[in-house]
Amino acid sequence: MQSQRDVENGTCWNPDTAPYSAVGETTGLRAPELAQLAATGSVRHQHPVLHSSRARQLILEAHHARHQEKHSDSSGAVQDAILGAADGLTVPFALAAGLSGAFTKSSYIVLAVLSELVAGGISMGLGGWLAGRSEVQTFESEREREEREVQHTPLAEEAEIYEIFRPFGVPESAIESVLAHFREHPRDWVDFMMKFELGLSEPDRNRPWRSALTVGGSYVLGGLVPLIPYLLISDAREALMWSILFTFLALLLFGWVKAGFTGQSRWKSAIETAAVGGCAAAAAFGVARWFDSLTSLST
Question: What does the record say about its membrane topology (predicted)?
């Protein structure tokens, strides 16, 4: 069993300092000492050898390795899947639940919900495609505008770069060095302005189609969950009870899995998703039953 002294001396493996071992071998510093210096931001000032590009690269890799578990994956595909599945679990359930009060046979409800799933999947997929396409078009339009500004109004763009760096206390001499590079490499200049002035990153050109398939597909898959009991049980009211249970468990599982991508507490995400989805489904169910009662009164 490793002692505290061994950990402090860097002779035993420590998850907080192990990533810095490669840097320590390069610089002659012990991993725990280097980790402490990195945490205080005083590494480069106290050890000039760390000014080298190789040392900076090693430190960056060590930092990413140390904090890898704390970063979450919030890619567009995950967001699209969450959007589609969340709607798919609630809307078809509400429709099936509302129809359960009007029909006693599950077969009628299955046909209605399947029709809604097809229409809803197409609609959600189209919405995902339009959103993805709009993102690509916005980036292209802003980049063209930024290229024109760099070409025709470079002095104004240089002033904007000064405004970007000034809040961080960067000396004007250092900013001028950056501008000298940008004047020779206008493409880098445009890239910099897109990211740090406008806050835009280049989107995936295939995003519209991927978003359409992901949103539409996840909607259909999510919508099949509350429909399963109606496929297995002929009595609609009995199937409704099982559909409520299936949907609630699916919402819990959905929230649990979603937390793996968002970085939230799994239990908190599961309970929150089930509560929000349950409220949405209950509200939609209430509206459906209200319309059903109005129809019954009119007849």
Answer: Multi-pass membrane protein
User: In this predicted model, what pLDDT tens digit does every residue of 217-243 receive, in sequence order?
Assistant: 999 999 999 999 999 988 888 898 999
**Burial 71-97, CB ≥16 within 10 A → b, else e:** eeeeebbbebbbbbbbbbbbbbbbbbb
